[in-house]
Amino acid sequence: MLRSFATYERMMSDQTGACRRQRRATTCFVGAAIVSFLLAGCGGEGYTTVPVSGRVTLDGSPLADVGLVFVPIAKDKDNPNVGPGSLGKTDAQGRFTLQTVNGEDGAVPTEHVVRMSLAPDASEVQSPDDAVPEAPVASPRSSRKLSLPRHARDGSLHFQVPSEGTDQADFDLVSKEAAETLPR
Known about the structure:
It is built from three helices and eleven strands; from the N terminus they run αβββββββββαββα. It has a five-stranded antiparallel β-sheet with strand order 6-4-3-7-10. Strands 1, 2, 5 and 11 form a four-stranded mixed β-sheet that branches. The chain is globular, with a radius of gyration of 22 Å. It has one domain (53-181). It is α+β, with helices and mostly antiparallel strands. A hairpin with a 6-residue loop joins β8 and β9 (145-146). The longest helix is centred in the N-terminal third of the chain and has 39 residues, at 2-40.
């Protein structure tokens, strides 16, 4: 009896682990579907895009390899599909140009929530989990570690894309250290 009970417990724990793995995979899939839906919108037609470019600096210096995500905000409850989100990545001068998640140039002319993240050096990426750094990234110009201010990462930045587009979607970020030295 003892032996069969131990076998039964082991069998049940294997099934429970399989259920957890299945539940985790389902949760990841549903999460990815929701994010894709929010970025891509419902229909894909009925929206226009305008050219958007700009620059990201930290304490006055250009930031390279910053990923930007622009998520349009639906203001009309009768039409929640304002269009797809847009993505960009800064170059060595901190400049970026947006492209929609559908591959079109620009962004939808409306207010957007903006999120930024520092991209790691390609030589540091060994798995997909390494692609989104949680720790500060070393600056190629110095041994100092860079990290974006929290408001650049948490979605509290907003940007209004004008109906004619813009080449001045500029974000002048201030580090925590520099902010502490500013006069109040």
